[in-house]
């Protein structure tokens, strides 16, 4: 079984821990480097620049910006409030001069305007307690540059008031499209952390319930976050000045995490399902190619679909099309097909803690089948089972013994663990002799009892594990196994749900 995206040889290499560790580190380093580009991204509102270049509103805006400066479209009002400001006209004029010299400021209208101009009555309030400055910025009023200039002006304002000679307790306020855009983006950035935490908690809970594991969901969510961060970094390198409409990254992030969750369930669920029949390495080698092909096809289809958003002649749609297309491709071609299988291979069975893809039968259910085959009561069935498993642990390699023990309940697994590590190449006749001595039965009975236990063991183990055990034994053990392989048709999984393991 395999897919076209990951050839069989590549999939087996991917499933080996050293290669998987190198691939995981390479993916994390590469995606992390790409994600670093997102540091240059800024958020803005950019209402008018979002319109098509040929629209009447956009043409009028461009003409006004060329003739009078970009800030003329939406001047920022700076209000200074303090009792008796009307008596501080020279200081207000000085403040206007200082404001006009700030970075990002094109011009300032205020109390320094010549007498008799229409703006004169709009600079100082009638009660003399407030002064107004109309600040024209040198960039598009709702863009990222204008927002940064206004934020910097807010920070500088106390120093400017002191330098102009105005009272230190004078109050300042800001109004206009730029101030509104600044508040909008600041509120979004402040809420992003809470939104991200809520989204990750929900995704983790759902994945943990589905996979019945703790570490695997964390690895899957880590992959989703890394995919989005890398995609955002790539898009930031492609978007002019890395300026995004404020809601585009949020929408793209939610969509990519949601789509990534679908891929998570598909590939992790497929690996978990294969682990019921195979070891971890073989499960990844089989499941990763099969799942990666479906994920890649789905990713290419989704990427093409999101790319169609660029047809809409509005800047937010084109930014969203770019970010989603890159994100889906990175997620489908790198994260789900390479990074996630590599991480699962590195962490091995610990990925599925505290659960296990392979649910062992209960000790009671196992002994009942041994009793049915031998006619013994529970006590004697336990003795012959313990004797057979302990002898098997002495005959097969320690690794095979540990793998068999993982698929058995605690009491039976302990019989294997106590004797593992010997790996003595004794023949089948010696195997029967050791079982007879341990179980205190005659040699003919020991042979029949061992066959009954091994037949039950074959029903409890995954088919792949049975193959490994048989491969570790010499040909003379065929008689002991008998038709045990054919017993797989009556595996424990097809029986009613076993009771919890005993012992």
Automatic annotation (TrEMBL):
Matches recorded under SUPFAM superfamilies: Multidrug efflux transporter AcrB transmembrane domain (SSF82866)
Transmembrane stretches, start-end: 19-38, 192-211, 218-238, 244-269, 290-314, 320-347
Localization in the cell: Cell membrane
Source species: uncultured Solirubrobacteraceae bacterium
A Pfam family the protein falls into: DUF2267
Protein's membrane topology: Multi-pass membrane protein
Predominant subcellular localization, coarse grouping: membrane
Keywords for the protein's UniProt record, in alphabetical order: Cell membrane, Membrane, Transmembrane, Transmembrane helix
GO CC entries: plasma membrane
All residue ranges annotated as the SSD domain in the record: 221-345
Protein name in UniProt: SSD domain-containing protein
Family, similarity comment: Belongs to the resistance-nodulation-cell division (RND) (TC 2.A.6) family. MmpL subfamily.
């Amino acid at each position: 079984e395999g897919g076209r995206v990951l050839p069989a040889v590549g999939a087996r290499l991917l499933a080996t821990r050293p290669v998987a560790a190198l691939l995981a580190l390479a993916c994390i380093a590469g995606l992390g480097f790409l994600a670093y580009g997102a540091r240059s991204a800024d958020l803005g509102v950019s209402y008018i620049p979002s319109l098509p270049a040929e629209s009447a509103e956009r043409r009028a805006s461009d003409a006004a910006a060329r003739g009078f400066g970009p800030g003329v479209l939406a001047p920022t009002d700076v209000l200074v409030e303090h009792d008796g400001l009307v008596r501080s006209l020279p200081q207000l004029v000085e403040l206007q001069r200082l404001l006009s010299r700030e970075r990002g400021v094109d011009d300032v209208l205020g109390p320094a305007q010549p007498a008799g101009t229409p703006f004169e009555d709009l600079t100082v309030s009638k009660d003399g307690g407030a002064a107004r400055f109309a600040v024209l910025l040198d960039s598009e009023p709702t863009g990222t540059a204008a927002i940064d200039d206004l934020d910097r002006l807010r920070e500088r304002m106390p120093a400017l008031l002191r330098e102009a000679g105005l009272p230190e307790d004078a109050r300042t306020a800001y109004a206009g499209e730029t101030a509104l855009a600044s508040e909008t983006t600041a509120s979004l950035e402040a809420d992003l952390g809470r939104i991200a935490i809520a989204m990750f908690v929900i995704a983790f809970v759902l994945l943990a319930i589905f996979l019945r594991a703790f570490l695997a969901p964390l690895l899957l969510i880590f992959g989703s976050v890394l995919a989005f961060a890398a995609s955002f970094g790539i898009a930031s390198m492609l978007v002019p000045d890395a300026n995004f409409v404020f809601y585009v990254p949020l929408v793209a992030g939610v969509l990519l995490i949601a789509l990534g969750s679908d891929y998570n369930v598909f590939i992790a669920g497929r690996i978990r399902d294969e682990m019921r029949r195979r070891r971890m390495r073989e499960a990844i080698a089989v499941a990763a190619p099969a799942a990666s092909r479906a994920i890649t096809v789905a990713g290419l289809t989704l990427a093409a679909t999101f790319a169609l958003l660029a047809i809409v002649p509005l800047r937010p749609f084109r930014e969203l099309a770019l970010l989603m297309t890159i994100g889906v491709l990175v997620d489908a071609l790198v994260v789900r097909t390479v990074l996630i299988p590599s991480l699962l291979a590195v962490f091995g069975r610990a990925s599925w803690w505290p659960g296990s893809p392979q649910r062992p039968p209960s000790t009671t259910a196992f002994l009942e089948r041994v009793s049915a085959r031998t006619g013994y009561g529970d006590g004697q069935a336990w003795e012959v089972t313990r004797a057979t498993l302990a002898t098997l642990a002495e005959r097969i390699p320690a690794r095979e013994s540990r793998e068999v023990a993982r698929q058995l309940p605690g009491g039976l697994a302990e019989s294997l663990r106590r004797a593992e590590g010997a790996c003595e190449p004794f023949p089948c006749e010696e195997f029967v002799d050791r079982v007879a001595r341990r179980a205190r039965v005659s040699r003919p009975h020991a042979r029949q009892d061992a066959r009954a236990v091994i037949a039950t063991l074959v029903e409890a183990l995954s088919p792949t594990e049975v193959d490994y055990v048989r491969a570790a034994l010499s040909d003379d053990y065929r008689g002991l196994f008998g038709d045990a392989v054919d017993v797989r048709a009556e595996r424990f999984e097809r029986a009613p749900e076993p009771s919890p393991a005993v012992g």
